[in-house]
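Long-time lurker. I teach an intro course on protein structure, and each term I like to show students one example going from raw sequence to a predicted 3D structure in token notation. This year I'd like something fresh instead of my usual example. Would anyone be willing to generate the tokens for the chain below so I can use it in lecture? Attribution to the forum is fine with me.
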Amino acid sequence: MPESVAIGVDIGGTKVAIAAVNRDGNVIAEHTLPTLPERGVEDLLTRICAGVQSVMESAGLPVAGIGVGCPGAVDYVNGVSLFAANLGEAWHNINLRRELRDRLHLPEMPVWAENDVNAGGFGQMLFGAAKGCDNFVYLMIGTGLGGCAVIDGRMLRGTSFSALEVGHITLNPNGRSGDFGLRGTAEMVVSGKGLLAGWAEYRLHYPDSPLTRTMDVDTAKILRAAHEGDLLALHIMDDAGEALGIALAWSVTILNPSMVLIGGGLGIAAGDLLLDRAKKIIKQRILPQTYELLGFAYTTELMSAVGAAALVWYELDRNS
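-- Reply from a regular --
Happy to contribute to a lecture. Here you go:
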């Protein structure tokens, strides 16, 4: 039997990554395209399917299935993207399974759709830092804060497909305004926008900080200043590490994983500034026997579309 591939599609706010991935996690062919959500749903779906067709032809191998990772809430059972704020208001109740099958003229093709963080979790479970681990929590720290959990080898999704949305845990009901009318959420402290919100809140208390004397501030500059010992930056990062620790303490207590994975662009870049503080908070807040069996790791760097493709291999193995 010839080798087959899974097609992974990762739909991001700025780009779409598509890859043909074999059972070992190797990328056989790949393609990227700009998302351009302002051009509408029809345009984006048309270009995604053209990209998928191109990757399938480049791979030149039988296709076992297609996996799609999409931001926001995704009805995994029916393959429907319920909403994704960064894909525009028109992106609502998009049946990705049906759209891909119809547009590719492949009515019998297995197609699965999943939240993008969950898809990343599948990638880590099959090909990355969580390979061989049946119980782990994965937090992705980037512009926002997302999470997923695999318990006893199965992804947790929940009633509204929003399990482990730890970014929306309220840590301080009187804190910073966040999404969906919530205040004081973890995401408004430990994320890219959280670090910038911290700078805006604390900057006037640190008049000697170079970060106070400019309005041209981004997360990279905050991280660099923290590494150089800047007190404003260290205050921001200390808050972020504490928020991360509290969110993880709740997650670990409820789910009892053997591993915590930290990923995302900011999670990797700021890990040394966040994780030591977070571990101290976690240790203070959970049972000693739970902490003793808990490991910490950073995610293996994988192309984003590999996670979506991993969903295909996971489902085919589970249903075989």
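Some talking points for your students: The mean pLDDT is 95. The longest helix spans residues 231-255.
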